[in-house]
């Protein structure tokens, strides 16, 4: 409706759809919550730290070899 009204130049005929008041909540089990918490708090940061250390030492060795 909005696209057709815009094409014919009627700015007063704009339709706004109403939002649904029904909510769909995401429910996860305690085990899944624990797993995700450990991933976010420990595994991902340690992985990024390890990659950063490897890149840093790799660059130092590469610069020394020049």
What's the helix and strand layout?
Elements: H1 2-8, H2 30-65
What does this structure look like?
- This protein has 2 helices and no strands.
- With 66 residues, it is mostly helical.
- It has a domain at 30-66.
- The longest helix is centred in the C-terminal third of the chain and has 36 residues, at 30-65.
Keywords:
66 residues, 0% strand
Portion of residues within helices: 55-70%
Cα distance spanning the termini: 67 Å
Rg over C-alpha atoms, rounded to the nearest angstrom = 27 Å
**Count of extended strands:** 0
Mean pLDDT: 86
Strand content: under 5%
**What structural class do the secondary elements suggest?**
mainly alpha
Count of discrete alpha- or pi-helical segments spanning 4 or more residues: 2
Shape: elongated
Order of helices and strands: HH
Please give the largest β-sheet.
none
**Poorly predicted tracts of residues:** none
């Amino acid at each position: 409706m909005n696209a057709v009204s815009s094409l014919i130049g009627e700015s007063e005929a704009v339709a706004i759809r109403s939002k649904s008041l029904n909510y769909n909540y995401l429910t996860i089990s305690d085990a899944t919550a624990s797993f995700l918490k450990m991933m976010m708090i420990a595994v991902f940061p340690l992985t990024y730290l390890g990659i950063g250390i490897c890149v840093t030492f790799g660059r130092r060795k590469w610069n020394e070899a020049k």
